[in-house]
């Protein structure tokens, strides 16, 4: 993926050879890449909302917020609107912070391109390395 | 005057997944943002909850409130729809709406039949418009179901068909979760057996006409 195509302030999506997508965020000169699957319920994060000011990704299915740099789960906005119903029960334990985290994709930068998954090799094209 | 109609079709998912998606209220205002961008819980009485759905009409926040009731394992009834704010011109001032949705498995147990009965109690002068109302409500239901099915099919692809483990985690909120776990907690795939009674078609359900 050409580095020049990775826009700051936007959610960049690269479809990899496997058919999966990489979610690429450029923030303050650094690039962060995540897998497309939301760790909560499996939504496609290519449809997430990226807030550059707050540095968050918000999932389209349930509205959960994740950090756009480290992928950590930040908050569930439904806790407020559903507060009346979120009493502890046998099978529901509120106030436990789930350990969700977006899967970080290893990347390397070389020759003006971003490579996913492994080091670029002279005679091999890394996944996602094709224009 | 009463106008009643049914909307019956199959959903390409298991009953457990269909029920989980219905009770997974956290997705209502995000996945279905187009239809109800605001959702508020007003009160709860056992298995019935009064909710408010709101949306923007110009600069005005308008919406409706209604009771939504769950009858395990797979029946959902909505009624007493009223406009919000109450002075808002709305068809709900003159028409009473009740919906009764049941999910039950297809004969092979691999898919779900969505069986919705809508009852509209309206004044005589509105009765000629019953066809339009039926069409609009049917379209709305199908569109929302399609969004849910797309979510469920993607989950099937990632986690395996019929996998409801994500919903069963202790921290995961669902409406009436204990009831759901009681009836579907033993199912992790479409081949799994429910620990409670299986949902049945209306004709077989006890106490139902």
Give a quick precis of the structure.
The complex is a heterodimer of chains A (131) and B (209). Chain A is mainly beta and 131 residues long.
Mean pLDDT of chain A: 86
Strand count, sense and barrel status of the largest sheet of chain A are: 4 strands, antiparallel
Taken in chain order, the helices and strands of chain A follow as EEEEEEEHEE
Which stretches of chain A of 5+ consecutive residues score pLDDT under 50? Answer: 121-131
For the record, give the distance between the C-alpha atoms at the N and C termini of chain B, rounded to a whole number. Answer: 20 Å
Strand order of the largest sheet of chain A: 4-5-6-7
Total strands of chain A: 9
- The percentage helix of chain B is 25-40%
| Helix and strand sequence of chain B | EHHEEEEEEHHH
How many angstroms does the end-to-end distance of chain A come to? 6 Å
Helix amount of chain A = under 10%
Supply database-style keywords:
heterodimer, A: 131 residues, mainly beta, 4-stranded antiparallel β-sheet, 1 helix, 28% strand, elongated, disordered C terminus, B: 209 residues, alpha+beta
């Amino acid at each position: 993926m050409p580095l020049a195509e990775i826009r700051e302030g936007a959610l960049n999506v690269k479809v990899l050879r496997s058919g999966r997508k990489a979610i690429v965020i450029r923030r303050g000169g650094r690039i962060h890449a995540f897998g497309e699957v939301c760790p909560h319920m499996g939504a496609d994060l290519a449809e997430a909302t990226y807030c550059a000011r707050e540095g968050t990704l918000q999932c389209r299915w349930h509205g959960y917020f994740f950090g756009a740099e480290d992928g950590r789960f930040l908050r569930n906005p439904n806790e407020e609107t559903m507060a009346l119903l979120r009493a502890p029960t046998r099978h529901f334990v509120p106030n436990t912070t789930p350990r969700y985290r977006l899967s970080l994709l290893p990347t390397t930068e070389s020759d003006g391109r971003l490579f996913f998954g492994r080091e670029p090799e002279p005679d091999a094209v890394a996944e996602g390395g094709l224009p | 005057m009463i106008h009643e109609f049914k909307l019956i079709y199959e959903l390409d998912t298991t009953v457990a997944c269909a029920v989980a998606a219905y009770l997974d209220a956290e997705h209502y205002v995000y996945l279905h943002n187009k239809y109800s961008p605001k959702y508020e819980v007003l009160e709860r009485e056992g298995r019935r909850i009064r909710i408010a759905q709101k949306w923007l009409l110009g600069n005005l926040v308008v919406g409706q409130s209604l009771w939504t009731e769950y009858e395990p394992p797979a029946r959902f009834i909505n009624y007493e729809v009223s406009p919000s704010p109450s002075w808002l011109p709305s068809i709900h001032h003159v028409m009473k709406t009740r919906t009764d949705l049941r999910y039950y498995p297809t004969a092979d147990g691999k898919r779900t039949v969505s069986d919705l009965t809508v009852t509209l109690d309206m004044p005589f002068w509105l009765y000629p418009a019953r066809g339009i109302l039926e069409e609009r409500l049917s379209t709305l239901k199908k569109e929302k179901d399609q969004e849910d099915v797309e979510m469920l099919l993607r989950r099937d692809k990632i986690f395996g068909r019929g996998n409801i483990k994500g919903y069963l985690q202790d921290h995961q909120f669902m409406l009436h979760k204990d009831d759901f776990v009681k009836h579907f907690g033993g199912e992790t795939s479409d081949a799994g057996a429910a620990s409670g009674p299986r949902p049945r078609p209306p004709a077989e359900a006890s106490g139902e006409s």
